[in-house]
Design a protein that fits this description.
This protein is an alpha+beta fold. It is 55% helix and 15% strand. The protein has one helix at 47-108; strands spanning 7-16, 19-25.
Length: 113
């Protein structure tokens, strides 16, 4: 009679430093002799299903990328409008300061008549 296969689980929370600690525990269910588990659930798909899944993932990624690019362009337009508005305010302020400077020059400079 063979012993049941033991499962090894990683416990990241009980780790000291960078090394995880492991605990050996008995499996929740014992498999009958001769039963082999599949390596992963994804291995049960046909090549056509895998290709369809890859196409679906690509389309989803492209759609998300389009949305992100659209949002990026919107934010950029908003930023440029804000900069243009700031430039307009600073131009008006600069014009007023130049006029004030000219006025002060006229007041402070000695009049030669």
């Amino acid at each position: 009679m063979q012993k049941p296969i033991m499962a090894v689980t990683g416990d990241e929370t009980a780790a000291t430093g960078d090394m995880p600690t492991y605990q050996i525990r008995a499996p929740a269910t014992a498999l009958p002799q001769g039963v082999v588990m599949a390596a992963s659930p994804g291995s049960l798909h046909s090549p056509q299903q895998l290709a369809e899944e890859a196409t679906r993932k690509r389309e989803l990624r492209l759609m998300k990328n389009r949305e992100a690019a659209k949002e990026c362009r919107r934010r950029k337009k908003e930023y440029v409008k804000c900069l243009e508005s700031r430039v307009a305010v600073l131009e008006v302020q600069n014009k007023k300061l130049i006029e004030e400077l000219e006025t002060l020059k006229d007041i402070c400079s000695p009049k030669t008549d």
